[in-house]
Amino acid sequence: MRLSHRELHYLLALCLSLETVLKLLVFYYSCKMKTYPEDLPTLSVVLIFMNEALSIILRAITSIINRTPAHLLKEIILVDDYNDLKEPLETHIKNYNAKHPELLKIIRHQKRQGLTQARISGWEASAADVVAILDAHIEVNMAWAEPILSRLKEDRTVIISPVFDNIRFDDFELLQYSVAADGFDWALWCLYEPLPAEWYTLKDETAPVRSPSIMGIIAADRKFLGEIGVLDSGMHIYGGENVELGLRAWQCGGKVEVLPCSRIAHLERAHKPYLPDLSIAVKRNALRVAEVWMDEYKYMVYFAWNLPIENPGIDFGDVSSRKDLRKKLNCKGFDWYIKNIYPNLIFLPNIVGYGTMKNTLKEDICIDQGPVPGNTPIMYPCHAYSPQHIFYHSTGEMYVGGLHGRQNAGDRCLADPGNGDLPVLEKCDIAMNKGLNLHWDFKQGSAVINRGTKRCLEVTADNPVSYRLVMQTCTGQRWNIQHTVKDWGKAKDLEQKAQH
Predict the structure, then answer these.
(1) 421-451: pLDDT as tens digits
(2) Across the beta sheet with 456-463, what order do the strands follow?
């Protein structure tokens, strides 16, 4: 089998390295040569839209009709989360249905309910064996559906993610993304993870990729998705619902996989339509996920968002029905999930203080990680964003500049090099290997003393308006950290877990 001139031209036009092109060619051939059973399950495709251009919706519909075997495509369900797009879309739906009887259906919300509820509405209206819940700003690739339907025919308990490619919103250029697993950090922001080692040992570029989590686009056995609770309708607006589904799938008897041969191009948007600042909804939804699914590990989510554990001031809603669901399904704990599914997340049970850190001499400036790249922390007017987040451990380490808590994205430790008058920031494992002095004695409202050098972390005034962070002989300066963890000593069991 050989590539057409058009297909080869496309690959070369990406201006990729020769090595990357060769890898893409091997992958392309592997997927193109793969065969699938004839008797595959039927498919319902759900398209969610909110403030989409009509042309974008039509692009998605046309690609699905043209690139999905007609005998497998049962229906396309449009879910309108309270848009102005009415008559023009209705006309196009009638035209499509004239050619493809009863293929297109539309559900209209009478008020804006958010992405999660829109997806639930689409699932409720679906009737095929398999449901794929997509955004409306997508274009499916050739043979996108067959890998999904074939895999779900083999195992109905898999929640599937296709591989995303990206279409730039300003010039519609297609950027082909590499295959990756889906993950998240402790704030529950989504991110890509390297392919697991066991996938490489299969020596099959088309094999499903075991994934700790899932991005926004999903496909699943329709009935199985219902059995495990679809999506959490208590989620607000946007964000976190995909991580919640991934945790629930793994902990409650299912699994999550990315399918390399199923590719969907996602048209990026200049901005998200629901909120100008998505962190508001993601933060609230993250706490909801933490309370239901993460057991004693939930504190890591509070740390990552720099929220007090007691009375965080955020109402994440009633979670009793989701806890009842977890009990009904006899789901595993988050400790099992971390150890067996996502060991790349690092649990930090020894944090006793976190947030911004101020010196009592001048309380409108905070310790800050300083310029990046760079290794010198500074004092800077307090703004409380992640560059000023400090995490002090009972074991003496002090992380500065946000919380990573992941194996392949090391946190940076404050250290006293022992010479000169400046403290340094270094990745904690590197600081340990270099023998830097990275352990500190500190109590709320007291000095910060390096255990190795016995010098203190203090501030000095270069002039009346400029303060500098220095290492020097202790003069009695005192520090306060924004949040402290109460009764952390009761978590000795957690410390033991982290050591095993």
Answers:
(1) 999 999 999 999 999 999 999 999 999 999 9
(2) 440-442, 448-450, 456-463, 466-472
Domain holding 471, by residue range, is 351-488
Residue 95 per-residue DSSP state: H
Task: Please report, for the chain, how many H helices and E strands are present, in that order.
Answer: 15, 24
User: Are residues 342 and 370 both part of a single domain?
Assistant: no
Q: Which two tokens stand for residue 177?
A: 């993304």
**Tell me, what's the pLDDT at 496?**
46
CATH code of the domain containing 240: 3.90.550.10
3-state helix, strand, coil in the chain (%, to 5): 30, 25, 40
pTM: 0.88
Phi, psi of 364 (to 5 degrees): -105, 5
**Is the peptide bond preceding residue 373 cis, with omega within 30 degrees of 0?**
yes
Model pLDDT for residues 193-213, shown as the tens digit of each residue? 999 999 999 999 999 999 999
Q: How many domains does the chain have?
A: 4
Alpha-carbon span 44 to 129, nearest angstrom: 8
Cα 231 to the chain's mean position, in Å? 16
Q: What is the DSSP string of 1-65?
A: ----HHHHHHHHHT---HHHHHHHHHHHHHHHT----SSPPPEEEEEEESS--HHHHHHHHHHHH
The answer to whether residues 114 and 27 belong to one domain is: no
Residue 499 lies in a domain: no
Both 342 and 355 in one domain: the answer is no
In the predicted structure, residue 7 carries a pLDDT above the cut 70: no
What is d(CA 121, CA 177) in angstroms, rounded to the nearest whole number? Answer: 30
Residue 365 to residue 215: CA distance in whole angstroms: 38
Would 327 be classed as within a structural domain? yes
Tell whether 494 is covered by a domain: no
Tokens, residue 332: 């595993």
Q: Which residues pair with 414 in a beta bridge?
A: 425
3-class secondary structure, 105: strand
User: Same structural domain for residues 230 and 299?
Assistant: no
